[in-house]
Amino acid sequence: MNTWATSKKQHSKKKPAQALATAPVGPGYAQRSDAMQAAHEIASAHDLEPAWVRQTLAQARYVPAIAKAVTPPAVGVAKNWAAYRARFIEPQRIQAAVAFWRAQRAALLRAQQQTGVPPEIIVGIIGIETLYGQHPGNYRVLDALATLAFDFPASHPRAAERSAYFRGELGHYLSLTQRSATDPTSLRGSYAGAMGLPQFMPSSWGKYAIDFDGDGKIDLFASAADAIGSVANYFKAFGWQPGLATHYPVTFDVQKLDLPTLLTPDILPTFSVGRFQAHGVLLTGDALQHTGKLALIELQNGDDSPSYVAGTDNFYTITRYNWSSYYAMAVIELGQAAKQALELPTHVRQ
User: Fold this and answer.
1) HEC profile of the chain
2) Tens-digit pLDDT profile for residues 195-223
3) What average pLDDT score do residues 63-85 get?
4) Predicted confidence (pLDDT) at residue 10 exceeds the cutoff of 70
5) pLDDT given at position 267
6) pLDDT at residue 260 above 80?
7) Domain enclosing residue 195, as ranges
8) CATH number at residue 199
9) Is 131 among the domain residues?
10) What per-residue confidence (pLDDT) applies to 72?
């Protein structure tokens, strides 16, 4: 999930889980003074037994492939929305989305009733994240978080900030496993330490995960209902507005177009409809009745011309799950494709 290990602009390309899971591990953290010092800080911050935290961190291992996975791409590598989209909006994933929607229809409708988040957005999120649980990640979460907490690549422009972030997530993870009486060496997830069908980071699990199937526990690994309810709860907490579109199509008045001004706020909705049009963006239909703010979303297409849409506050809310306009658009389009396939007559789908 969420906002942990990807760039602000483009969702990082996920490595094949099986290939990375077999990557060799490096030395452990038992002899690392920084890790043992962090153990005391984590124990104090989360009211945990210091000896238990030290003993647990001593079992964590550095995984070189994880450090490599968060290394920024080489300068000059062009983003390509068309290629990115093709990886996710494809027949196998759409079919899996339809099957998931049918199997979980009651939970999806209940989540919508309680939060206003429509089924297609929840279906899109879980489909992009793990293909409905088929690819939840095979790294030990303890190893992933320790590697990124103590050995985040120094070449990254935000290395210190990201390292601090993952130290915080490591603390939340140890607290989570302690509260749930779970062996912290047993859980597996993504190379960034995200877990379960919706790929929640430990802090998000603690804040937003809910028991949606009523069995008295929260299980984002095996309970599709808990995953559905938790994703909806996450979006509600980040300001999802029921009934609001995620984006609108745009065209440009090339004589007025002021792209530098329009793109400066990035994906943050900043412009009224009037200011949008004053800067050369042409809107039609429902977009003209929009009363909130808009952002011009640019999706680069390699050497071809970029694609553009007007993003609303709900588009921005989806990016709170992963800080990427490419990711958000893929979530939206996968959900829409599943909804359309679900509504088609059987003979047409075949």
Assistant:
1) CCCCCCCCCCCCCCCCHHHHHCCCCCCECCCCHHHHHHHHHHHHHHCCCHHHHHHHHCCCECCHHHHHHCCCCCCCCCCEHHHHHHHHCCHHHHHHHHHHHHHCHHHHHHHHHHHCCCHHHHHHHHHHHHCCCCCCCCEEHHHHHHHHHHCCCCCCCCHHHHHHHHHHHHHHHHHHHHHCCCCCCCCEECCCCCECCCCECHHHHHHHCCCCCCCCCCCCCCCHHHHHHHHHHHHHHCCCCCCCCCEEECEECCCCCCHHHHHCCCCCCCECHHHHHHCCEECCHHHHHCCCCEEEEEEEECCEEEEEEEECHHHHHHHCCCCCHHHHHHHHHHHHHHHHHHHCCHHHHC
2) 999 999 999 999 999 999 999 999 999 99
3) 86
4) no
5) 96
6) yes
7) 17-76+137-223
8) 1.10.8.350
9) no
10) 77
| pTM of the full structure | 0.90
The angle at the Cα of 228, spanning 198 to 219, to the nearest 5 degrees, equals 65
Tell me: pLDDT of 33 over 80: yes
The mean pLDDT value for 25-33 works out to: 89
Q: What is the pLDDT averaged over residues 182-199?
A: 97
Catalytic annotation, residues:
129
User: Is there a domain that residue 121 lies in?
Assistant: no
Do the domain assignments include residue 127?
A: no
As for how many domains the chain has, the answer is: 1
Give domain status of residue 206, yes or no.
yes
